[in-house]
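Lab manual, section 2.4: Encoding a predicted structure.

Procedure: take the sequence of the chain (206 residues), apply the prediction step described in section 2.3, and record the output as structure tokens. A sample record is shown.
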Amino acid sequence: MTPRLSYFKRYRMELDLGGPLPDAALPDGFRWAAWEHDLVWVHADVKFASFRDEVDSQVFPSFQTLAGCQGLMRAIRDKPGFCPPATWLVTTPDGPVGTVQGIRDAQGFGAIQNIGVVPHCRGLGLGFSLLVRSLIGFRHVGAKRVYLEVTAQNAAAIRLYRSVGFRCTKTIYKAVELPEPAPVGTVSYTHLTLPPAASPWPEVGE
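Recorded output:
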């Protein structure tokens, strides 16, 4: 049987690290936690809390479960290009609330993986600080350019990345396989639709 597919529009955005970077200061009451091997599951916990109810959990099913986020963090940690200086947690006295991870690809470019902030701590600038702290880490290890991918529906994230200097260089359509329709008499699955073709963001470049 042919799989049922839906497509999500995503942008690749890139930043040249040759220019100045803003400050990565955190608000009062928050602090940084640098990468340590025994924090891998803490990163997974924050990733799950940050993404499980967001559109990216439909694009990447790993975000839908804690086990999936644990597997994703394990895969990131075990990649040859895993970059600890670009991987950070934001914590509070009540626990961790933000995460970012970084990888260097075969060309030496930095690749930001997932910037996640738990829902009750959004709107405080933590995503901005996580992004900048990761960029500083990539610069520390000699990366000259950094890229990331973002779902076109995530307008807030795109605004954040553009505010630091990222620009769209490529448009990607990611295919996601849908589950089989529910049998008659059960709750049906809502079909995912292709994001609108019209977008305020540039398709390629500026």
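Check your result against the sample. The longest strand covers residues 4-16.
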